[in-house]
Design goal:
The chain is of the alpha/beta class. The protein contains 8 helices and 8 strands; from the N terminus they run H-H-H-H-E-E-E-H-E-E-E-H-E-H-E-H. GO terms for molecular function: N-acetylmuramoyl-L-alanine amidase activity. Keywords: Cell wall biogenesis/degradation, Hydrolase.
């Protein structure tokens, strides 16, 4: 499975209580408005009643099918207001589409990607882009990225079909447009390139040149 099993405590913020006290106590005592603003900019979205309005079943990419992941496999957020998004992480499921969806709906799995792209090009969204999906095995990358799983196996070149490349390229182009990301290998990375990961996906058969060429063709002149 391309998405990494982040332990909830690893991705969560155990310092929330201490930070809240810091804002209310130290900031007030020292009179540091700048400190308070910085801390509150990271914490406001965690408080009740401050989420962006959400529509049940809504998707971020037109044509995607919505199948919600377990709430244990992502962290509710309000990106990009709380965490700027500047990466797309390409994964391979190491299995079929149905098995990927099944584990992402399993709260014990503790991992999920935002999207799964099937061999036939159909796209399923499991986590809203607003939220931090546990997919990269690295908290900072989880917070800054959108994770896209691709049905198949890293050592099976036939997994990566024309329909999959084309559909995934349209999805990545839309994500890059939404967050103002350049279409290059600094901003579109494989899971294997995430610091600290032990994964190898998307593997040697993933054609990066072809993929970026397709993304740029959709994105247009602003791709650079």
């Amino acid at each position: 499975m391309g998405a990494s099993k982040d332990v909830a405590a690893k991705d969560g913020d155990s310092r929330l209580g201490r930070r809240a006290l810091l804002i209310g106590g130290a900031a007030a005592a020292v009179g540091s408005a700048a400190l308070a603003r910085d801390e509150l900019s990271r914490l406001w979205w965690r408080l009740p009643g401050v989420d962006k309005p959400r529509v049940a079943g809504a998707v971020d990419f037109r044509g995607a099918r919505w199948v919600p992941a377990s709430a244990a496999n992502y962290r509710r957020a309000d990106r990009p207001d709380d965490y700027p998004v500047d990466r797309v992480v390409v994964h391979v499921t190491q299995g079929g589409y149905a098995s990927a969806v099944k584990v992402f709906q399993d709260p014990a799995h503790r991992a999920a990607a935002h999207y799964v792209v099937r061999r036939d090009g159909r796209i399923t969204q499991l986590v809203r882009e607003l939220d931090v999906a546990f997919h990269a095995g690295n908290r900072a990358y989880n917070e800054r990225s959108v994770g896209i799983e691709h049905e198949g196996f890293v050592e099976d070149a036939s997994s990566f079909t024309d329909a999959m490349y084309a559909s995934s390229a349209r999805l990545t182009a839309a994500i890059c447009a939404r967050y103002g990301m350049p279409v290059d290998r600094e901003h579109i990375v494989g899971h294997v390139e995430v610091p600290g990961t032990d994964h190898t996906d998307p593997g040697r058969f993933w054609d990066w040149d072809r993929y970026l060429r397709l993304v740029r063709a959709v994105r247009g002149p602003s791709a650079a």
